[in-house]
Sequence to fold (516 residues):
Amino acid sequence: MSQQPNQTKYGEMFYIGTEEVKLPSLHHMQLNNREEQCFAFVLQHKIKVSIVKKGQHTTKKAVGGELFLIPSHCECTLLNEGNHLAEIVLIRFRSGSTAAGAEMLPYRDSMGLKLLRLPQARSWLQDFQSDCGTDDVVLYYQLQSQLYAMVAALIQSVQQPRETEADLIGYVEQAKQFMIEQLSTPMDMEELARSSGVSTSRFYQAFRSYTGLTPLKYMTKLRLDASMRMLSGTSSSIVDVAHSVGYPDEYYFSRLFKKHMGLAPTEYAQLAKKRVATLVSVFAGDLSAIGMPTCLSFIRLSTHQHERVLQQLREAEPDLILAGMLDEEMYAACSAIAPVLMLDWKAYSWKERLLEISNALGLSTVAERWLSYYEMKVQNAREQLKNSLGDEPILIVHAGKTGFRIFGPRRRKMKDLFYDDLQMTYPKSAHQIGFLDTSSLREIAELGCSSVLFLVPAEASRDYCNQLEEGWRRLREKDARRRCIFIGYHDRLNYNPTVHDGLIDETVRHLMSCAQ
Fold:
């Protein structure tokens, strides 16, 4: 459990109200804050901000999309030096602590007034602007939570300052998360780009480097993926689905869906509503790529479980069963319940398997679309890796609870992704390895490779990763090129499209974060 913070340092925050300010050209506004504080958000154009507090004078220009804190017990002047009307929203609040405690909320850093850019800010502003002073308890607590989010972002930004390029990457990461959380609402990509603080072209370039896609393509993919899940897993109408994923015009949504998927939404829904059971968990990732859930899934099938598995299959009433290799008796028993697609999944690549499964379900065009997006991400990740590692050999090692597993070029599971798709270079000392289990970090170091990529569960602690890195550096202390890369994964490290897709995202995120 994390340590409980000192709650008296900043005190509780209580939202008071919202005020919209319009400053004509060459006009100013004087604010004399006493007990209350406020966040100011510049809606458009730019203003000059001057704050005098305890004899300290701070001056800075804030432009559209930037947020800053006006502290208590200060004199603040907002001046519009431009030729256009400037609009500012003031979000007023007070601290529940003493005045001295309230003053400790930071409003500046070593560079002067702290300016923030949050992709969520404009969405939050709509909620604050809807506050008409009514006794709406739900709205009040919603605004309270957003106020605390602003405070947290401010404190984090002051405590962990970053350089300009790192700020941009951080903003791109926030923008990506904002798109995921707000895919049902209309979104202006140009406005999102302008709020980054750099040119539109620079933001688009950074976003594409991070995701492999332009912001518009990324948003479209998110929305269509979400629509597939709704069409396959719910009884929602096409109209409801379109509106739920951010398309107010259902006819436009239907045309867009067919253009990308090769099927109309109604055709996809009819095919994707089939109930599919999987006797090996790896197949669940194949179904997820084409938007389908499982009605029943087992991690793996063992002989002593057959009767229990058959009973659960009968109860689930699947339309199709996806299975690994079965003996004749089990195949016959399963076939009596539903058609069985038996796949020797370790004998060929997951890409071939995805196409085979999707073809059996009538969804091959959906799988082809997924693979085309995957290839875009692969090409982008390959470029980031080339910039970061060059042709430097790197070992791929899974760090589990009980030991390590080295993945070499003779084992398809990780070779397909890291050594084939991403074109990493494997060390010559590992060229005969399929996989090698060991409990010793020293044995890994003895392979003579300077760099290692550890695959670790997403829940692995920072301390655990630090210990691994320290151990590796000790064992390779005479190697100036030694380095560790940690890539997190969720759930199981299965050989399927969704796991490999997630590993690419994490690899790019790690490389771009470290580059800053």
